[in-house]
Amino acid sequence: MPVPDGGVALVTGGGRGIGKAIAQRLAEDGFSVVTLGRTSGDVQADVGDPDSVEQVFADVRERFGPVLVLVNNAGQRQDGLAIRMKAGQWESVIDTNLNGAFHCIRHALDDMLGARWGRIVNISSVVAERANAGQSNYGAAKAGMLSLTRTIAREMARKGITSNAVTPGVIETDMTIDVADKLLAGVPAGRIGRPEEVAHAVSFLCSDGAAYVNGATLAVDGALAA
To answer: How many structural domains is the chain composed of?
Structure first.
């Protein structure tokens, strides 16, 4: 389903793993997709840097069109027990995973309000609701994304804009390869999820059929957080 007014779907962290699967699925759905990465993708930016994000949104508008679908998928991990975690580890993860989502939403809303139509999907994590030792920074950022998601939904619901979140569980990606086996025992489904399964959830939330789904959190975790 193409977005109104020739707009595009911007997927942050869209070069690999879950982001790549989302970009591919949205393209199959008929969206004009633009991927953003720190060093790869159709456009490059450090989403944790507000000036960089402002510039990249200006570039996307000029080269591709207004951003009317935004998938905030960019993320990183720097694990460690809280008592030993360095300030830089905390700040880097919060900047990318939470602040980056806010910076992108703020600029995308300019385009969405003009069109009176928009879809925002924030890729959070099961650890937002089910804590993992050693991931205080990652868990705090992903939990913050859920609150951000709901707040934007309330602020923008009358404008034709939806804001929803997806909470993947243990998904087969580069980011989880070092912890997947350890976490698998706790997954009721008995298997690791695939990036394409997260992409299906995002596809639904971006569709016309999800126009009345707003401020929701959709778990794709094999019942891990149940």
So the answer is: 1
